[in-house]
Each structure stands twice: as C-alpha cells, then as structure tokens.
Write a structure and sequence with these properties.
alpha+beta; 9-stranded antiparallel beta sheet; about 35% strand; single chain; 20 strands; about 25% helix
C-alpha cells in the first residue's frame, strides 16, 4: 500500500512538473511570437506614419483621401510611400539575435535608430525601432515595441524582405525632403497657358509661348515669330512630368547660396497653367572641383550631369541636365 502511494505521489509530482514546464514553455513561445510580429497584414488601413531618428530628424506622413502629405504641407512621393507600406506589410524575421550579441545590438539600437509608428484612425497599430544592417547587409536589426504598454520587447531580430537583397533602413529615412514629391512641372494633359524662357547671357535665345484663341504662338520679346507651330506643340510635351533630383538644405549650404547670389543665372523658366498658377525655376551652372578632368583627360570646368536651381517654393535643388535638355532649348529650334 505504501509502495503504491509512493508511486502515485511520484507520478503526480512528475505530472505537475511536466505541466509547469509545458505552460512555461508555451508562455515563452507566445512572448517570442509577439516580439517578432513586425509585419502589418491590414496595411490598407494605415493612414498615418511617424518616423524619427536619434539625430532629431522626424517626419509625419498623413493620408488625405488618395493623397499622402508630408508634415501636412507637401504632397508626398507616391512611389516612396508605396514602397514603405509594402515593406511594412511583408516584413519577415530571418532570425533572433543570438544572446551573446543582444547586448551589443540593443546598445547600437539605443544610440542609432529610427523609430517607426503606424496609425489607423488615430490608433497606434504597430511601432518598432529600425537599426543597422548585419555584416552581410542581407538583413536589418529591429526591435518591436508593445503598443499597449509602450515598452520595448527584450529581444531584437534580424528582419528581411523575401526576394530583396539589401537592408531596409533607408526605406524609413525620416528626413522630410526625401519624402516630398519633387515634381516642378506636371502637365500630363498639356494644360499650359504660357511658357517663358530667358537666358541672361544670350537674350536673343529666349522666347515666350502663349495660348491664344486655341493655338500656341511663339514670341521673342513682343514680336510674334510663329503661330500654331508643330515644333512648339512637340516642345510642350516635354512638360508632362519634370522633377528635381533632390533638395539642398539652405542652412547647411550658406557658402553655396552666397556664391549663387553673386553669380549670373544660366536661365529663368516659368510655366503658367490654365488656372493662372505659375511654376518657376532659376537655374545656375554647377562648377566642378578644381583639377577635374573628363574621360580623355581634358579640364572639366562645369558639371556635365547636374546643375543648381531655385524652384518649388524657392528652394535650392539639384537638377539633372538629362531631364531638362529637351526644355532648355533656344528660340531658333522652335521656329
């Protein structure tokens, strides 16, 4: 009897210990599962995104109807927004950061990170920290934040996108200028009232195009050169979509601003739409560093690929010759 009681007690203890470890393991697995759920399956519900880094840069992206806005001021680049949303939806975990590396990775995340927050109708749906790439740049370190408590999970993970080689940090860049739609001219249906192009160094090359009585007429100063020219019609097609390459921070480019102020502009270009709104560019040629040479060793004084321009809301930008070469033509080519 005592022997049977002992065996029963031993079996009961074994069962209780087994149940304890089973449920403890279950809880651990559940916590680990929650800590790795970076992706947002219902991405179409997201209508606000906040990004900020440890350098003090931050940006708020807000959806208004079908358009995303940057800090409630500027239209956002749709392609860039869609790339971020696709990333947030398809984000996967490659592996948990090994324990021996966790202290180092968490320290790096604490000092150099981008925080991303995704909202839907005012509610915080997902938030996490984005760090640097792993040594092979095939994954990106991230740490999830508990939306309910606001506390960080303990375990960082190496994340990736299936089918994508590279790291994901640049997709979360919080600098507002990188998110802005930099289209200067956008006339997919040729809704142009007038175009005026002046070259201060060669005034005879300038011209004005005006829409008058349903036809586009070419002028030089106040002199009518041609009416309803095919050359002019083809020229206006070049304004379908023209964008700057990137914006420059005026506060970080004081010396450049002073140099451009004392320099004669290369051109002045203004385009007015049918509603009377005018978009302008003042362009300046870009000097190359002293000692620059071209492919055959000859001195290169001016940048053959890029130039400076004041555009959009009188902001300093880098513009590409390739984009503008069909627009910056002389009057003779349109006659």
């Amino acid at each position: 009897m005592k022997k049977q009681l002992f065996v029963f007690s031993l079996s009961l203890c074994a069962l209780l210990i087994g149940l304890f470890f089973f449920f403890s393991k279950k809880d651990g697995e559940q916590n680990d599962l929650e800590a790795r759920q970076f992706n947002i399956s219902n991405i179409q519900s997201i209508d606000k995104i906040f990004l900020a880094n440890t350098k003090g840069e931050k940006v708020t992206l807000t959806k208004e109807g079908d358009i995303w806005k940057v800090n409630d001021l500027y239209v956002a680049r749709d392609r860039r927004i869609q790339t971020l949303l696709k990333t947030a939806k398809n984000l996967e975990v490659k592996q948990r950061v090994p324990k021996k590396q966790q202290t180092r990775i968490i320290k790096n995340l604490a000092t150099n990170n981008i925080k991303a927050e995704f909202f839907s109708k005012g509610d915080l749906i997902k938030s996490y920290y984005i760090g640097s790439a792993d040594g092979l740049t095939t994954g990106t370190y991230m740490l999830l934040i508990d939306e309910d408590s606001g506390e960080n999970f303990n375990t960082p993970f190496l994340t990736y996108l299936l089918g994508f080689e590279g790291y994901l940090t640049p997709r979360y860049e919080p600098s507002p200028s990188t998110w802005r739609d930099l289209k200067i001219f956008y006339f997919p249906k040729n809704a142009i009232q007038s175009v005026k192009l002046d070259f201060p160094s060669s005034p005879h090359d300038g011209f004005t195009i005006k829409l008058e009585d349903g036809t586009y007429n070419l002028y030089h100063e106040d002199t009518l050169i041609s009416k309803d020219s095919e050359h002019v019609k083809k020229y206006l097609l070049n304004f379908k979509s023209v964008a700057a390459e990137r914006l420059l921070d005026k506060q970080k480019n004081d010396s450049l601003l002073n140099a451009l102020t004392n320099k004669r502009p290369w051109f002045h270009l203004s385009v007015t739409n049918l509603l009377g709104k005018t978009s302008k560019i003042t362009g300046y040629k870009k000097d190359m560093p002293k000692g620059s040479k071209n492919a055959i060793g000859l001195p290169l004084l001016l940048d053959p690929d890029r130039f400076f321009g004041f555009c959009l809301t009188n902001e300093l930008a880098i513009l590409q010759h390739y984009v503008f070469q069909s627009i910056l033509v002389n009057r003779k080519s349109l006659e």
